Amino acid sequence: MMNSLSIPKVLQATLISGQYHESSAPSGRLPIQSGFWGEAMNEATDLMHVQQGVAAARAVDAAKIYGHGDAAVRALDGITVEFGSAKYTAIMGPSGSGKSTLLHCMAGLDRLSAGKVFIGDVDLSTLDEKKLTILRRDKVGFVFQAYNLVPTLTASENITLPIDIAGRKPDRSWFDTVIDTVGLRDRLTHRPSELSGGQQQRVAAARALVSRPEIVFADEPTGNLDSKASAELLEFMRKAVGEFGQTIVMVTHDPIAASYADRVVFLADGRVVDEMDAPTADRVLDRMKSLGGE
Ligand SMILES: Nc1ncnc2c1ncn2[C@@H]1O[C@H](COP(=O)(O)OP(=O)(O)OP(=O)(O)O)[C@@H](O)[C@H]1O
Ligand SMILES: [Mg+2]
Question: What is the number of the ligand 1 atom nearest to the C-alpha of 251?
């Protein structure tokens, strides 16, 4: 077991993820009210639950500006989007359209310049760093585009790092399921420098999935995988949504990967420009062509 104190604080905060919680059902409607105002209240509370209960995460008018003056880049330009609970959403868009920025801000890894993001009902802008870290640890898994593995730890230690930091014990049978699904059984004692790009990517995915967080944000989790490894990971994530009620938000450039999702959100220039339900690879490809990306 590695010593969590040897991990720099900033990495701990970034990598930390959490334990599985039963997906929180919307709290019940207020007691039935009668009469005109009662009905109006019933409707209002129903609406609140539709808005609050269904979305696992959402952004409202989210803007992110990097830099100042002439060098300023508007990475997010007023994004309003909801990610439904126990749904699998893909985010697509040309390089530089703000996909990673949106994911980082939604997961509380970066702060917005304006607007709000919510995980469940919690407005992340109201949390200080400590509370944000706890929320990430308990509810969020993140697969980084650049993997963010700790070079001095083995694959196995990297995968259980968030659980170790949280002082929890990994669920061994689930750990085994994840490891076998991503095909890392014979690489568990290797360090990242001894792994191929695709293997490092699988370690990053396993790390986000092994604690069964309520919501997983995955930034191009199959970008470096061959079609077989890619299909296995996508199938696994599909199952995590269908069988365990996890919510997955996945950035991808690949129409086939997107076809595993329930819905695709298309970004361009930091804005949501289109959406598609029940995507197929062909329809996604057509839409990408018509949007002029890639
Ligand atoms: N830390 C930063 N400082 C300055 N500009 C940044 C920073 N991070 C991102 N950007 C800029 O913000 C814009 C959006 O970047 P982002 O990484 O979100 O794009 P992306 O859609 O994920 O692209 P890709 O598909 O290439 O990963 C880009 O123009 C990028 O150059
Ligand atoms: Mg990116």
Answer: 22
Which of 159, 212, 173, 177 lies closest to 22, judged by CA?
212
Of all protein residues, the one whose alpha carbon is nearest to atom 28 of ligand 1 is 96
Atom 18, ligand 1: residue with shortest CA distance: 98
CA of 65 to the centre of ligand 1 (A): 10
Mean pLDDT of 148-154: 96
Give which of 294, 287, 272 is closest to 62, Cα–Cα: 272
Q: Over 70: is that where the pLDDT of 18 sits?
A: no
Structural domains of the chain ordered from first start: 10-291 (3.40.50.300)
Rounded Cα distance, 44 and 41, in Å: 5
Ligand 1 close to Cβ of residue 71 (< 6 A): no
Q: What is the pTM of this model?
A: 0.82
